[in-house]
Each structure stands twice: as structure tokens, then as C-alpha cells.
Amino acid sequence: MKKTPLNEKHKSLGARMVEYAGWEMPVQYEGIAAETIAVREKCGIFDVSHMGEVYVAGESAGDFLDWLLSRRVTGKEREQITYAIMCYDDGGVVDDLLVYTFADYYLLIVNAANKDKDLLHMADSLTSFVARNPEAKGKVAIEDWSDRYAQLAIQGPDSLEMILKVRDLLDLTSEQEQVLSSLKRYRNLELSPTEGLPMFISTTGYTGERGYEIYASDTKVIELWDALLAAGCVPCGLGSRDALRLEAGLPLYGHEMSAEINPLDAGMDFFVKFDREFQGEAMQGQNTRKIVRLVAQGKQIPRDGYPVFYDEEEVGYVTSGTYSPTLLKGIANALVRVDLPDDVKELAVEIRNKRIMFDVTDKFLG
Amino acid sequence: MAEIKKDLFYTESHEWVKVEDNIATVGISDYAQEQLGDIVYAEAVEEDTEISVEDVVGSVESVKMASDIYAPVAGKIIAANVDLEDEPEVINEDPYGSWFVKIEMSDPANLDMLLSADAYEKLIEGE
Fold it and tell me: Which residue of chain B is at minimal alpha-carbon distance from A306?
């Protein structure tokens, strides 16, 4: 199992460690519920060093990525981060990712569990891209930079205050401090390199709260972890990360999207632009299912894979289900037939051989 | 370290069993509640249900996990602890005080299959 630079820190805090995507990661410290609430009300810190970083550079890198991904990465402000989906030719999903733009390269932040598969897919795609655009031959380089970067997520209403408490470690100039304080969502701020590695902080996260993610060297991330804990950040594990993302209505690869569930099925239409050619455009018109959000009327908790019924007919299944520590009840995403009427107010979930009614809702949090 | 009560029997699926005359009382061990984390849901199968060994007699769920509770012995459920449904968190606080069901045993030989406290301690050391 691979270990992040914070492995010993987690163990000394008494974290329960689990294997996730080949990494030994903390699933919880004090408890998933307390950690979830800490992020909603104050500020939590997550070790997300397992995430993959893929470097893409060269004269044709932008054109290649525009073709590889569900929306364009070119023609944007440099600090703007693009969330995009990488698809197979049929529209099935390889991975979902963030694209950061630097002076002469792009950095793709990919799911740890998918990184090796992503690299193979990207190599194949580059071959196809060059076959279509012979002038791009030799003008795109792809490298796995995952070992260079460790990563922290600092999430919650107090996250800016926490970041400013460690301004010295981030080597923030007063001008950068100003910029950071008013930075819009999905923006990147490049910081001074540490140990020759470009360090950067972005207004991104996976919790639905205001938050930041810092990408830096192992040594820097260890220093930041200690300082941010001292500043008052609550250490949070993968358990609360998953509860937070589901409460926020965010998809998780392997649940709401996969090789078998295309982005349109997953309701991610906003992130797919058909006004051009790209790999996976064949998904257009192949939208047979949709994601609905379910919230419990009683105490029962829907779980992944439970079947979903409408008028006695099985119409889909739960893709992600959990107890919501914020709402204090069960919540779920379910993938159901696309022709299910949009005004359906209730669906049944089969839990331990009983059909239990759940309310259909637009979003879980207000 | 998880507490293991010496006067109870245990199962490989982490139930504890208290035997008094012909009645087996069943709950989940301290180790099981630690592994589950914050318990947010619990239910026990209704009274008067006839059950065989390893039938489901209850369910317990934490934020992340759902887990069934299995009958360690055959017989009839003569009491189900419905209070757990309203206060599932007490299982975290007092696992050995939080029973799910009481079973009137039909075959006392089932008890031979249960683990002693010492054997259970060895089992969880190996996990």
C-alpha cells in the first residue's frame, strides 16, 4: 500500500486507516458525523495526497485536451480551473477531473483509483488525435506527476481565516493575500516554488463549502498540516469527505458516473459541450437514465445498490446512499429511467425486503 | 482496546450472547460498535418470530455502513428492544447494555458453537 507523507500524523491522531485506491488513508478520526459538522460549521482539513496529477504540455496540448475532454480548456483566463469529464468514444466515462492552466503546461487532477487507467487512455487518445491531426505529431507530452505533489483540502466557512493564519508557510505576499481573500470559486493562485516544485492554492473542494486546496511538496504539506491543526482545523477523513460530497450533490466516479453511466445520464449536461468534435460526443441522444435525489421520510438509510420502485415497478437503483450528519436522516442519489415523470414526488427504496417511501428533492442542502 | 465481558459468549460476526436459563440475550460487541462508528439506526426483528441459527434478528447502521445481526441460536424471539430505534446512539455508549432480542432457545446444543471471551479476544486480535 502507498502512504502519503502524512501517514504517521494520521496514525498518531488515532485515525482509523483503510485501503483506498491502493493507498493507506484515514477514513475517520473522531467520527464521521463530528467531522462532517466541523466542515459545515467551522473548518476541516483533509489529506488528499492520493489524488493523481497528470502533466500535459507541448504546442498542441490545448487542442489535444479540448478533444479529449467534455468541454474546452483553451480560451480561458489562466487562473480559471476547468472541471471536465474524460470519456470513451461511446460516451462512457473514463474519469472526471480538474484542469489547471500554467504558463507552459496543463495539470490534470484525477481520481487516485483511475490514474493508471487514465494514463493508458490518454496515450491511446493521443495516438487517435495525431492520426486526425498529423501536424500535432510530437507536439504533446504527457507525464505522471503524481509522486511530486502532496495535497491538502481546507474546507468550511472558516477556511480563509485558517489559510491566512499560515500565510508565512505559504510565503504569501500582501498582494497575494488580497487576491486570495476575494478569489472566486474554481480559481488558482500560483505561489512561490518550494524545493523547485511550483506550489499553488485553489478555491476548489468536494464538500459544497467555501474551501481551498493546496498542492505542494511532501515537506511543505507536513509543515502546513501541523500549522493548520494548530490554527484550529479539524482533521477529517474519507468518510466525512464522502458524506459531504453527497450532501452537496456532487458525483463520485464509480457511483454516479462510470464506463456504463455517461455524463448525460448523470445529469452533468452543463459540463458537456457539443458545439465541436470531441471524444465521447456519441453520447448525444444516448441518455436513457437520470439521477434523482432522495431524502428519507423516516429513519431508514438508503445504501448503494438498493433497488428503487415507482408504482410497484423497479425503475432504477441507489448509486450513493448514506446517513446525512447535517440533515440527520438518510439521503441518496438514485439512477432511474429517464422517462420517469419529472414531477414524481415520492419513490420507494427496497431496504431489507421492505419498500420504504422517500421524498424526491432538487437538492439536499438549502 | 475494545472491552470484552468475561461472563458473555460471542460469535464470529461480533454478537455477544448472555445465557440465563433457557433465554439467550443478543447484542453487538464493543469491538463491533467501535468498527461501525457513529450508530444512527437500529432495529430488531418483531417478537414471536421463529428463527434458525444465522437468521437475521436485527440491523444496525452507522453513517457509512449497514450491518445485520444474526441469531446465534435457534428458537423464538420473546422480546425485541424497540427502544433502540429511538436511541440507536446508546449502542456506542453502552454496547453490553444495549440488547436487540431475547431468544427462547429450542436447541441448547447451539451454545456449543459460540466463542468464549478468551476465544473472541483472540479473534479480534487477528482482525
Answer: B66
